[in-house]
Structure formats: structure tokens, C-alpha cells
Specification:
The protein is mainly beta. It is built from three helices and 35 strands. The chain starts with a helix and ends with a strand.
């Protein structure tokens, strides 16, 4: 009977090995989305956001004064009560905000938010670069109730607002201290929905013509927002998202599932063979080659060759995917119900080709004691092991060509993922482990 059981586990392991390319995403603790709903009565799909590897940020417009919440990765596995007690909450004393309409962040301590001061008030911009030890709030003095997309560059903050009175876009640019503003009015465009800068001077903005709102436009600036020109125009379909992983390479998604790519900073665009015929609402690339697109009905696709080929990801979600966040070692998406899903393994761990295997692991499957042997040329290498929930269960360092053992006997049976990096955290090798006791 014991032999049959072990054989069953072995077959299950083989099935998991072959299926793991599909089952890559899991929903963060179900307490998180239920709890977010209970904490904030009318959060937009733009909130919450993922500001870093495991840092979930969101604004709370249910309470006054306005509170800003930061939920760490470890907290996401706690119960609802523990989650509430463990989160970091930042309050803006003396400033009562009745409506939070946008949050942006370059990391988990540099945060930008836009909020309406009291019902009917003018939007204000708040900024901190030290987790709210200090912060500044500036009134923008405009009549605007819509979402105002914002972003960071290295030294500037950019905010785009639709000005209904003048049928134009107002671009606010401030230095990183948010102390002084340059206000730029552009009468050619209106209805901004997303803005991103690849440098202090070069940026892109999804908008429409003020004279013809049927035209969906990606506008580009190369002088820090002073002058904007057409970069991509579509009179039939709507541009839903774009991603520039580098200054030259960019991607666009549209509401009919179309995708386009540029390799010359928007000078020309080539239509990609899209894997989808439904709306693709978001796109995010970790680098020029590795990226994801998501959209209606929970469709999710991945490419490792710059969009030439796409593979279907099993998102585990039938709700529209509105946002994607990709980092060096992990990826997230947020659906229209504010549920947050995470890639269960480091980004691209199973598909990125890194040449001849650097690491040999044996026995595999094993009971929890695994021997690691490396042929890496680096003097020191580092190994990390993750479980199916994306939690790190082991980390350690080893010498060039040295054999050593890692002990995972305290972990339950199942599939695990390992990644090996050098001193600069460059990925050298990755793979899977199967524990069968």
C-alpha cells in the first residue's frame, strides 16, 4: 500500500511539473479583498495598487480624515483581524478628504495621491518619499472631479487633468519635493487616462482629441510635458494601456484585443499577432522581452520574446483584469472586484532560457533533504526556494562548485520553486523541487 501511495505521489508530481506552466497565479488571502470592501465603501478600480514586491497600498475614503494604508506581504496571510492590526496606517491630521481618486508610487515609501478636499472641493496633490514621516499637500486649484493620472520620473512628478471648461488638458509638473508647480495647458487633447515618463523629459499619455473625442491617442513629449505630439492614433478602437520597459521599446493594448509594438520610442508601430479578441485593459513588461497582458473575463497572456509568441496563463479569475504590476521577481494583477492575484513563482522562472543548467538538484523528487551542486563561475551564489503561495521558505549562499544540502523537511509535500542568483541578484538558474515524504 505504501508503494502504491508513493507511486501516486510520483505521478502527481509529474502532473504538477507539466501543469505548473499554467497554474501560476493565486489569489491573495481572501480576507484582503473582503476587508478592503469593508474598509472603504467606494474604492475605484484604480485602487489599491502594488507599490513594491508585496506592498499593497490603498486609500480609505470611508473615514475622515483621509487615511492611507500600507499592507505588507507578511500581513496578507493573516486573518482579517490580524491584517487590520498589522497594517501601517497614515493619517493626514487636520486635512479632511472626502474622495481619493488616484494613488501612484515608485516604491513602498515614495507615494503620491490625489484627493478631493471635502465634497465639492478642488483636488489636492499629496506626496511623501519617506513613508509619511514628512509629507506635503498642494491644492491644484482646478475644477475637476475625474481621475487624474499621475506618475514619477527621476526628478519630477507629473499629473494630467481634464479641464472641462476649456476643453483641454492641464499638465502639472513639479520637482520631486512637490514644492513648486509648472502648469502647462494643452488645448489639442482632453480626457487623460494614463501617463508614464521613461525619463525626466520623455513621457506618454493616453488621451483623446478635444475636437473629436472618437479619436483615441497616445501622445508623446520630449521636453518634460511642454509640447505634446501624436504618437499613435486610432479612430476606431480605444487605447486601454501601454508599457515602456525601456526608452525605445513600448507596447500598446486596445479594447478589441489589438496589440502594437514600437522599437524606436513611438516613431513607428508594428501590429502584433494578438492572442485575444476581447478587450485587453492592461499591459506590463518587466523588460523588453518579458511581459503580460490582461483583460476582459480574466484573460491573461505572457510573452518571453517581446510579443512574437504568447502563452495563455491560468489567471484563476473570470473577472476583468484592470491592472498589472511586474517587478524583477514577481508579478501581480488586480481585477475589477479589487481582488489581488500574485504570480506564484519569480517572474518568468520556468520559461526564461538561461542556457546550460547551472545547478543540479538531487534527489528530486525527495523527502526534503536536497543536495545542491553548482557549476556557476561566480565565487558566491544565492539560492531561494518558494512554495506554491509565493512565500519564501528557504534562502542561503553557497560557494562556486560546492555541494551542500538544503533542509526542507519542515515543509509539507508539494511543489516548490528555486532560483539561483549571483552577487548582483542576476538570475543564473531556476527550477522546481518536489517534496514527497
Amino acid at each position: 500500500m505504501k508503494i502504491i501511495y508513493r507511486y501516486f505521489l510520483f505521478l502527481l508530481g509529474l502532473m504538477l511539473f507539466s501543469a505548473s506552466a499554467q497554474a501560476q497565479w493565486f489569489k491573495l488571502n481572501p480576507y484582503i479583498d473582503v476587508w478592503l470592501y469593508s474598509r472603504s465603501a467606494s474604492l475605484y478600480p484604480y485602487l489599491p495598487i502594488v507599490a513594491g514586491d508585496g506592498e499593497i497600498l490603498y486609500g480609505d475614503e470611508y473615514e475622515a480624515p483621509f487615511t492611507f494604508h500600507d499592507v505588507g506581504a507578511a500581513d496578507l496571510n493573516e486573518s482579517g483581524n490580524d491584517l487590520y492590526s498589522a497594517e501601517r496606517v497614515f493619517e493626514f491630521n487636520g486635512i479632511v478628504y472626502g474622495w481619493v481618486n488616484y494613488i501612484a508610487s515608485s516604491n513602498d515609501s515614495t507615494i503620491l495621491f490625489l484627493a478631493e478636499a471635502n465634497p465639492g472641493g478642488s483636488p489636492s496633490l499629496g506626496y511623501t518619499n519617506n513613508n509619511f514621516k514628512t509629507y506635503s499637500v498642494v491644492n491644484l486649484n482646478i475644477d475637476n472631479k475625474d481621475v487624474m493620472p499621475s506618475c514619477f520620473s527621476q526628478n519630477y512628478i507629473y499629473t494630467a487633468a481634464s479641464c472641462s471648461v476649456k476643453d483641454s488638458i492641464i499638465i502639472f509638473r513639479t520637482d520631486i519635493s512637490a514644492a513648486t508647480f509648472n502648469t502647462i495647458i494643452n488645448k489639442k487633447y482632453d480626457y487623460p487616462t494614463y501617463i508614464h515618463f521613461t525619463s525626466d523629459s520623455v513621457g506618454y499619455l493616453i488621451c483623446r482629441y478635444s475636437s473629436d473625442s472618437t479619436k483615441s491617442v497616445l501622445a508623446r513629449t520630449s521636453d518634460s510635458g511642454t509640447v505634446w505630439t501624436d504618437c499613435f492614433i486610432d479612430s476606431v478602437h480605444i487605447i486601454k494601456g501601454f508599457s515602456f520597459p525601456s526608452p525605445s521599446v513600448g507596447y500598446i493594448t486596445e479594447n478589441d484585443g489589438s496589440m502594437y509594438k514600437t522599437i524606436n520610442a513611438g516613431g513607428t508601430w508594428a501590429k502584433l499577432t494578438s492572442p485575444s479578441t476581447v478587450s485587453l485593459y492592461c499591459v506590463s513588461f518587466t523588460n523588453d522581452s518579458l511581459g503580460y497582458v490582461g483583460g476582459k473575463g480574466g484573460v491573461l497572456y505572457k510573452t518571453i520574446d517581446g510579443g512574437t509568441k504568447w502563452t495563455t496563463e491560468t489567471s484563476g479569475d473570470a473577472t476583468t483584469i484592470n491592472q498589472l504590476f511586474t517587478f524583477d521577481t514577481v508579478a501581480y494583477f488586480i481585477d475589477s472586484n479589487l481582488a489581488i492575484y500574485k504570480n506564484i513563482q519569480p517572474t518568468g522562472i520556468e520559461n526564461i532560457s538561461i542556457g546550460k543548467p547551472i545547478v543540479n538538484v538531487y534527489p528530486n523528487p525527495g523527502s526534503g533533504i536536497f543536495t545542491i551542486k553548482s557549476s556557476a563561475e561566480n565565487a558566491n551564489s544565492f539560492i531561494e526556494v518558494y512554495n506554491m503561495l509565493g512565500e519564501k521558505v528557504y534562502s542561503g549562499a553557497f560557494q562556486h562548485q560546492a555541494s551542500f544540502q538544503i533542509n526542507l523537511t519542515g515543509q509539507p509535500n508539494g511543489m516548490y520553486f528555486f532560483r539561483v542568483t549571483d552577487n548582483q541578484r542576476t538570475l543564473l538558474d531556476s527550477g522546481k523541487l518536489l517534496i514527497q515524504k
